[in-house]
Automatic annotation (TrEMBL):
PafC HTH domain residues: 8-122
Pfam families named in the record: HTH_PafC, WYL
Species this protein is from: freshwater metagenome
Name of the protein this chain belongs to: Unannotated protein
Annotated signal peptide: none
Domain named WYL: residues: 144-211
């Protein structure tokens, strides 16, 4: 089970439990296949639930029961989980965010009990798609990113160690890197994978190691068009702010990065989606000036509207 952090493992377990509760007696092999796990890892996860999930004083009525019969799994929730729970607004919002994160895991049932619970909680909170501000994910390692970009430019074969969250393991493979591109604040590598014998799109922040093999390849035609299609239609955004916003150039794709004589920095970024832009603007120094590259209009209203939606969620109703 190497390569997975404790928070990731907990999130994976939380995605599996509701599905098993709703589908008791399912064979272990079927559950493992659905969630992209090995039977051994799945059994270890469920044994952890059996021995470690419950409330003080750990009597039977506050423990989660996991049973294996003929290699089939059933989970009986403790009585505690059947009692109505009174939540504060902040607790409900935290629960809603956690539920949505779990639904994003591979294998989660998009029409299952968890989806139903998330929809009901969302309705109670008065929260909808219009008011959503998404959570940012981790940026790519700049050293790995540089290796990938250089390899793509030189048509050099790469040896990658790539972590798959679905399979919960890192695999070694050789790839022919065609292009490094961006979409919604993430770097991606478009490449031919020798292991899968097909073209694949790799999330750069999941590449654990990238090394040149010394071999080269002939890139196919139309790669630039494919990369443009995958990147999506984008617009540019200009940021001018204190030196503290320089981290953006290390974390995300950019077209221009300049240091001004007055000590400020200027960044021009490609943006393909407004939710990602909202996330970014909320993380920057408030003195940062954001401008739409095409129209020249200020984007302060985008930042203000996103901040107001977050405040509205936390205000008591």
């Amino acid at each position: 089970m190497s390569g997975i952090t404790a928070p990731d493992r907990v999130q994976r377990i939380l995605a599996v439990i509701p599905w098993i509760v709703h589908n008791p007696g399912t064979p272990l092999s079927e559950i493992a296949q659905r969630f992209g796990l090995s039977k051994e890892d799945l059994r270890k996860d469920l044994e952890l639930v059996f021995y470690g999930v419950g409330l003080y004083p750990f009597t039977p009525d506050v423990l989660v029961e996991v049973s294996f019969e003929n290699d089939c799994v059933t989970i009986n929730l403790a009585d505690y989980f059947h009692r109505p729970v009174r939540l504060t607004h902040e607790e409900a919002l935290t629960l809603l965010a956690g539920g949505r994160a779990v639904l994003g895991r591979d294998g989660s049932d998009p029409e299952g009990v968890l989806r139903s619970a998330v929809q009901k909680l969302s309705a109670v909170l008065g929260e909808g798609e219009v008011s959503a501000v998404e959570v940012a994910l981790g940026p790519a390692d700049p050293r790995i990113l540089q290796v990938l970009q250089q390899a793509a430019e030189a048509s050099s074969v790469l040896a990658l160690s790539y972590f798959s969250y679905g399979r919960d393991q890192a695999t070694d493979r050789e790839v022919d890197p065609y292009s490094v591109l961006s979409r919604e604040g993430h770097w991606y590598l478009l490449a031919y994978c020798h292991l899968m014998e097909a073209e694949r799109l790799f999330r750069v922040d999941r590449v654990q190691k990238a090394e040149l093999t010394g071999d080269s390849f002939d890139p196919p035609d139309l790669i630039s068009q494919v990369g443009a299609t995958l990147s999506g239609t984008s617009r540019s955004v200009e940021l001018i702010g204190p030196e503290s916003i320089s981290w953006v150039a290390d974390a995300y794709p950019y077209d221009v990065f300049e240091q001004n004589p007055d000590g400020t920095v200027r960044l021009v970024l490609p943006v393909t989606a407004t939710p990602w832009l909202e996330r970014l603007l909320l993380r920057l120094d408030p003195s940062t000036v954001a401008t739409d590259g095409l129209s020249g209009e200020s984007l302060n209203r985008v930042r203000s509207a996103a901040a107001q939606r977050i405040l509205n969620r936390y205000l008591p109703r």
